[in-house]
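Hi Q.,

Before the meeting this afternoon, I wanted you to have the zinc ion prediction in hand. No need to reply - just skim if you have a minute. The sequence and ligand are here:
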Amino acid sequence: MGLDDIKLKVSLITDENGYLGRECPIEECKGYFKVLVGTGLEGVGYSYCPYCGHKGDHNTFYTQDQMEYIRSAALNAISDELGKQLKKMEFSTRPSGPFGISISLKHEHGRRIPIHRYKEKALETYVECPNCGLKYAVYGVFGFCPDCGQHNSLEIFRKSLELIEKMLEMAASVEPDLAAKLVEDALENCVSEFDGFGRELCHRYAQKSSDPVKAERISFQNLEVAKQGLATLYGIDMEEGVSEGEWKDAIRWFQKRHLLSHSMGVVDEEHIRKANDNSAILGRKVIIEAEEVRQLMGGLGKLADFTYRKITHL
Ligand SMILES: [Zn+2]
Ligand SMILES: [Zn+2]
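Predicted structure with the ligand bound:
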């Protein structure tokens, strides 16, 4: 084998769970993420950046560390091969001639080229794409699937509902004061997670709206306001995602959460006027049952599915 024939097989290093680092080739992004080798779509020649959505040949997504590792491994192999070739050329002659001269060529192996070692970084959110099965990890929370490009906002929202359900289960086995606090927190989390989901969706798909600047500002903390915004900017009627009863219930529970955030949970006149809440008494604390929060979670799950499907298919 000569130097022309060197074929190098370099196995890239994964983290302890089998995730491989990737880096967006776009200069302004350079976003770092990881994918679990062996999951997702097979044989796709491209990747999406979870952060900026750039789609490109998957060979352009090597990280700086991986490039240096490949380079150093290649140089190492070449220098080894060169050493072997030179070794083969070694010779020496017996002293001869009137002056007894001998000639020899001997190869001394010099210093080896160091292999660039690195460790993949720890990331913040691990997701399994429901569309293609790829397991991947990103900084922050939201992102596009590197294999199929599907945005993960719905998946993240579903995961947060699972956590809220765990809070409710915990509330069933602790003292009443703590249980009440957990249920209140669960309700507040439902609203803030739904708001986070809705805002992210409108942000990612702002270009599909009639006014991208306004689309970036739709709040989902108030269902009527969100419904209005989606109708005006995207032509979507969010209320179609649930039954009339579910919509009214969700409005009432959002109003209860509003009381928790703004008046320590004490019923005020605005609540009596807006919330359609038969159990509310002016000046008393609002009552929140774990079962109500569960029903709200069911309704919000349907609203999130519906809105996601509508906006991504516009
Ligand atoms: Zn990017
Ligand atoms: Zn996917």
